[in-house]
Write a structure and sequence with these properties.
The complex is a heterodimer of chains A (181) and B (482). Chain A has seven helices and seven strands; from the N terminus they run βααβββαβααββαα. Chain A has helices at residues 16-22, 27-34, 64-76, 84-89, 101-111, 155-166, 175-178; strands at 5-10, 36-37, 52-58, 61-63, 77-83, 131-136, 146-148. In chain A, the strands form two sheets. In chain A, strands 2-1-3-5-7 form a five-stranded parallel beta sheet, with helices on both faces. Chain B folds into two domains: 3-46 and 426-481, no CATH class; 49-413, Cytochrome-c3 Hydrogenase, chain B (Orthogonal Bundle), CATH 1.10.645.10. Chain B has 17 helices and 16 strands. The chains are: A alpha/beta (181), B alpha+beta (482). Chains A and B meet through helix 1, helix 2, helix 3 and helix 5 of A and helix 1, helix 4, helix 5, helix 6 and strand 9 of B. Bound molecules: iron/sulfur cluster. The site of iron/sulfur cluster (SF4) has 13 residues of chain A, from helix 1 and helix 4.
């Protein structure tokens, strides 16, 4: 029988959730036996081409490309998990939601103390995705089946949820695994 | 899938660039004869930390700003702490605090370098640049070389355990605070870490030997691959010794001559400026005195090994001497030499961890110092990927009013763009485009271990897309690499 397929996606987060996933350490050798990896930043598979059983995403949605790829995850993954504060609430990047995007761009590209006199400009190019006014939680774009809280969720949390789902059980995680820090 | 089609008048897009930490994209413009006209490596996300950290209290910076990057959070945690040491008027933290921070930092350097070499880059080195996409990843390494992969997993785990013992958490810990640390190392924690350190040193030497054997087997090709000359910038101690935690800035030119030396953090604005280009959210730093055209430089492991006069741990120093001999008195410029230099530093980090663990100061009781409040704090650190600069202004109500962050990967922006151009010229010019050829572009970018998360103050993952663009810029045909 074919193994279940697992995909991971990364949007506006810090990669810390993916790093926490790697903190399952030796269990990664076990995971390789349990699942086949589909699209993920750790391999060179760049597009979905078959149904995926579980998708895990990190980070909120801050531009049109994030939104498009998140929708693609929803379309291709039977179960979609939002991993970490950024995916669930927008997290630290969503601190920018309290001010106009324009101010953030001006501070970084026009006013910074290392920008030479008259040297600043705000990047704007067809090759850059369009920034959204705010950083949005994933569930504002697509239906999310499970959330795993934390910044990042611990490796044990990710492992417990994943192994439960892979064995067809409804994950029921103890308090220590879902409390913040 | 192989993308092989007529190349004339096209724009090739590699998006996302994979097996790097972050969201980046490459565009290659071809002229009507299929020759390379222009290449660009774009950073396509933006987060805005500089602005939204304003109005928050200064003591939050070490824990909030590290959320720029989950791969090297310790670098941001410590750079922000060091800048805030200045703000709270502490010029020298206690020996216990300094050594705890150093231990945390070398733990991080160890785990980050291991992650990059084994998990992200080794598939290209072990299987070749043209290996099938399905195998060319860490899972492929686990299957083909389980002993190497197991050691890699345990080495990264060890570095993460060092971080946890010093900062309280493997990712986004809270151990370092303005003026010092909030914990020391217990005897139990110390003994736990001492138990495996000799294995870690031995395995990192094996990793270095593995890297050297790959290079030596294909020396001529790998030394020429994506190679160009540049200046180098890094922190060194006063006596020129390699130091990843603290020191002053040194810049050398392509011949190895000093451009400037022993510049303290408080003077950084006189030496470094940044250019903005319309097509990337990552800025382009340059040495002010040399100007935009000539002032760009490289940072990171290769820059540090080229720039320092010596390393103060024995195995790494012996390896440095062998490595620099390759340059015959000039700096080493090969892009792929980054991997070699990175593995020398991995050995050095393991040696440093052992030295620190045996230092009784780690059990000291003096954790935090205080002084007279100041309005500005600038600090730097050698993050795994290169020099990281944090600059904050803080008002009398303790609120941050300005933040300027020049992260490691940003310093390498021009260099990564040059590597892309060079590899495109070397391998893609006038050729039918295949998946393996496109992977070469990514191999060149990967050598710099770019953390695009930090760099955009954003992060992500990448697709590869090839677009056929007509003369009116309309997309005629589009293909994706799987
Ligand atoms: S939740 Fe925390 S660890 Fe995860 S991406 Fe966001 S900032 Fe990083």
């Amino acid at each position: 029988m074919a193994k279940p397929r697992l995909a991971t996606g990364h949007f506006t987060g810090c990669f810390g959730c993916h790093m926490s996933f790697l903190d399952i350490d030796e269990r990664i050798l076990e995971l390789v036996e349990l699942v086949d990896f589909d699209k993920s930043p750790i391999n060179d598979k760049k597009r979905f081409d078959q149904p995926v059983d579980i998708g895990i995403v990190e980070g909120g949605v801050s531009n049109d490309e994030n939104a498009e790829i998140l929708r693609d995850f929803r379309k291709n993954c039977k179960i979609l998990i939002a991993m970490g504060s950024c995916a669930i609430t927008g997290g630290v990047p969503a601190l920018r939601n309290t001010m106009p995007l324009k101010e953030c761009l001006e501070e970084a590209f026009l006013n910074g103390p290392t920008i030479g006199e008259g040297d600043g400009l705000i990047p704007n190019d067809p090759d850059l995705p369009v920034l959204l006014d705010k950083v949005y939680p994933c569930q504002e774009f697509v239906k999310i089946d499970y959330i795993l809280p934390g910044c990042p969720p611990s490796a044990d949390t990710l492992w417990a949820a994943l192994t439960a789902l892979l064995s067809g059980e409804e994950p029921s995680l103890p308090y220590e695994l879902v409390k913040y820090d | 899938m192989t993308v092989a089609q007529k190349t004339a008048g096209r724009k090739i897009v590699i998006n996302p660039v994979t097996r790097v930490e972050g969201h980046g994209k490459v565009t290659i413009h071809l002229d009507d004869d299929g020759h390379i006209k222009e290449t660009r490596f774009h950073i396509i996300e933006f987060r805005g930390f500089e602005r939204f950290i304003q109005g928050r209290p200064y003591w939050e910076a070490p824990t909030v700003v590290q959320r720029l990057c989950g791969i090297c959070p310790v670098s941001h945690h410590l750079a922000a702490s060091k800048a805030m040491d200045v703000v709270v008027g502490v010029d020298t933290v206690s020996p216990t605090a300094e050594k705890m921070r150093r231990l945390m930092h070398y733990g991080q350097t160890f785990q980050s370098h291991v992650l990059h070499f084994y998990h992200l880059a080794s598939p290209d080195l072990l299987f070749g640049f043209d290996a099938p996409v399905e195998d060319r990843n860490v899972i492929g390494v686990i299957k083909a070389h389980p002993e190497i992969a197991t050691k890699a997993v345990l080495m990264r785990k060890y570095g993460q355990e060092v971080i946890k013992a010093t900062s309280g958490k493997k990712i986004h810990g809270t151990g370092s605070i303005p003026g010092g640390m909030n914990k020391n190392l217990s005897i139990a924690e110390r003994d736990e870490l001492l138990r495996d350190i000799d294995d870690m040193i031995a395995w990192s030497v094996e990793g270095l030997e593995l890297c050297k054997s790959v290079v030596e087997a294909d020396m001529e090709h790998l030394l020429a691959f994506g190679t160009f000359e540049s200046s180098f910038v890094s922190i060194v101690k006063e006596d020129g010794c390699l130091d990843l935690y603290d020191g002053n800035l040194r810049a050398k030119d392509a011949d190895g001559k000093i451009i400037f030396d022993q510049v303290p953090p408080s003077k950084y604005l006189e030496y470094i400026r940044e250019e903005v280009r319309s097509w990337s959210y990552m800025k382009f730093p340059y040495i002010t005195s040399l100007g935009k055209e000539k002032g760009w430089y490289r940072v990171g492991p290769l820059a540090r090994i080229n720039n320092c006069d010596y390393i103060d741990t024995p195995i790494a120093e012996a390896e440095r001497v062998k490595f620099v001999a390759l340059g015959g008195g000039r700096p080493i410029h090969a892009t792929m030499a980054y991997h070699w230099a990175r593995m020398i530093e991995t050995v050095h980090a393991a040696e440093k961890i052992k030295e620190l663990l045996n230092d009784p100061d780690l059990q000291g009781e003096e954790l935090v110092r205080s002084g007279e409040r100041r309005g500005t704090g600038v600090a730097w650190i050698e993050a795994p990927r290169g020099t990281l600069i944090h600059h904050y202004d803080v008002d009398k109500n303790d609120m941050i009013t300005l933040a300027n962050l020049i992260v490691s990967t940003t310093h390498n922006n021009e260099a990564m763009n040059r590597a892309v151009k060079r590899i495109a010229d070397q391998y893609l010019d006038g050729q039918e485009i295949t998946e393996g050829l496109l992977n070469r572009i990514e191999v060149g970018i990967r050598a710099y271990d770019p953390c695009l998360s930090c760099a955009t103050h954003a992060l992500g993952q990448m697709r590869l897309q090839v677009q056929l663009v007509g003369p009116d810029d309309a997309v005629i045909h589009e293909k994706f690499r799987e």
